[in-house]
């Protein structure tokens, strides 16, 4: 089949592209390359069609989407700290841009699998968190993702098949440096023989899921008969940031010690997915443990 991936030159989108190519699908990537990089696609770029395009430009997307069998919508601005400073820009790309994709999916009757985020939940009093739990995002980025979910419901009610995947902390090779997650930052520090800098006391926990497992969840969602759902995509295993830093130091074999710095604004304390619904509806579960996923950085 032939699929469109918006944000396909980015970290997660490029892994989805690779997974689809490996499954013998055709892929068209739509990306404005504001954050995406061609290097993310190296080794299989000749098997992919590229369209340098902005998701805010609805008309330019029409032909590509009408020619496809479905859309994996990943394009977004993704930095929590930056979203406090550039609220309007984040709203435009993440909400107006996403509505463009939903509008075209409606016009051309295509299924959409798109990137939501665990940030829609905000600080939670209960873990692991199920999909029906209260949504109280604590930063402008999370608010854009919750606005997208409201739009997804609206467009589903108009007949569009939409699955929103609430990714927890996705890690893997290809994550961009400026806006990278904690694992890439620790790896870069350890690689330079520097101590990993943990923000706060390091007791806050995250649910780390490998980008390869996330790519699989995307295709399973597209293939599933489910026409509307939001699904947690995590492992259901909590790891504190201190544990993560120590695990990475151990894997590196270097004599480093963790250092601490101030906790930034808008960081949630605990984040842990209940993954029952993804198992039930799309038959997905993670395959790669955190330790095995981290080994790819060091060996
Ligand atoms: N990485 C994570 O842990 C995580 C967690 C939850 C949700 N998400 C979501 O997953 C998706 C992918 O995230 P990522 O980590 O791969 O980020 P990324 O920045 O690596 O990829 C996003 C891609 O979108 C492109 N893009 C941005 N604005 C665009 C526009 N206006 N038009 C066309 N392309 C545009 C960028 O150039 C980039 O290639 C995002 O929607 C993000 O919000 C990521």
UniProtKB/TrEMBL annotation:
Membership in a protein family: Belongs to the NAD(P)-dependent epimerase/dehydratase family.
Chain ranges of the NAD-dependent epimerase/dehydratase domain: 4-234
Pfam family, one: Epimerase
SUPFAM superfamilies assigned: NAD(P)-binding Rossmann-fold domains
Name of the featured protein: NAD-dependent epimerase
InterPro entries: Epimerase_deHydtase, NAD(P)-bd_dom_sf
